[in-house]
Amino acid sequence: KSFSEKNKFEYAGAAGGFIDKFGYPFCRGRILEKIEEDTNQYNDEREIFWATGACLFIRADCYRLLNGFDEDFFAHMEEIDLCWRLKNRGYKIMYSPNSFVYHVGGGTLNKSNPKKTFLNFRNNLIIICKNHPPKYFLLKLFIRMILDGIAGLKFLFSGEIKDFFAVIKAHLSFYKTLKTTFNKRNELKRHIKNYTQSAVYIHSIIADFYLRGKKIFSDIDSEKRFL
Prior knowledge:
single chain; three-stranded mixed sheet; two-stranded antiparallel sheet; 7 strands; 8% strand
């Protein structure tokens, strides 16, 4: 929950994280920029796709098995990568409503810093490249390139010029590290028997938010679109 507004969920994780079919992360209690007030609507124990690094417990043997966080990320989404790797090994990520963590947020980079935009876009592409199942992998990656381009243009036309260039820099950095990322993907693939499908949202959260007007998690959860 938010340290500054304790009646609301916190942006970085809220009441448990999920991803959509294109690899975009979102949360119960926070979809894109829409943050919900906590009215006990998510007080259930439930499997999720990822847990925020600000509020995460993991067994030491699991952490060591996967060599912990990917240090190449520096910051942002490294916990999603770790959770995806765990799930691909057959583990579950669970949400518990029985404790509260109040998160200040923005300790490394504040929301307005374009480097935050850079890391979010670059690291999200790396996560997909490392962990997505082989089926439709290249198609999904191509679609993400297009969607990221649209997001970059939205920044440009909104006057957020630094964020526009941050998206471009994120893609250039991703292409530069593509060989290393594919090496990681191939190494991870050696230990995966069945790629995870659980807690994946089978629709596009971007289309839901902007085109269908689905702004809160309960709007999409009722449609039974999670695997």
